[in-house]
Write a structure and sequence with these properties.
alpha+beta, 5 helices, 43% helix, single chain
Length: 136
């Protein structure tokens, strides 16, 4: 499902396992993990409830640099982020920004068109692997 530039794919796994699988998939693809943030743990530290929610920040200079060379402000949305979260019904989702939406948001042009297409295809592939679904 896509909503306001966000793509959300239902995962067959829990939040932690989904992110673990994403880390494995992107590492094997040669991407770098910059940070993993457990938002639910942060909420717990202040005594606030929050369903399982983890953010992974990752990428590769080959993917992001062309976007920033085209429009440097695109760096506000880089590196790439993916959020695994559990909804009110207990369904786990893996959400990320649609690459084409990012291109439109920043007014990217021909200079970064191939990089945007590569990011879009790569995200579809790694998210499907992490979530255990067929995204063809």
């Amino acid at each position: 499902m896509t909503n306001n530039g966000l793509v959300s794919v239902e995962s067959r796994f829990g939040v932690t396992e989904t992110i673990d699988r994403l880390v494995e998939t992107i590492t094997l693809a040669g991407l770098r993990v910059f940070a993993r943030i457990d938002h639910a743990a942060g909420a717990h530290e202040i005594g606030a409830p929050l369903r399982p929610t983890e953010l992974l920040i990752f990428g590769h200079s080959k993917g992001g640099t062309p976007l920033m060379q085209d429009k440097q402000i695109a760096g506000i949305d880089l590196p790439i982020k993916a959020l695994a979260w559990e909804d009110e019904q207990g369904t786990v989702w893996l959400s990320y920004n649609d690459a084409q939406w990012l291109a439109e948001r920043h007014g990217l042009g021909d200079a970064s068109r191939d990089a945007v297409a590569t990011i879009a295809a790569s995200m579809k592939k790694v998210v499907a692997a992490a979530a255990g679904v067929d995204q063809s």
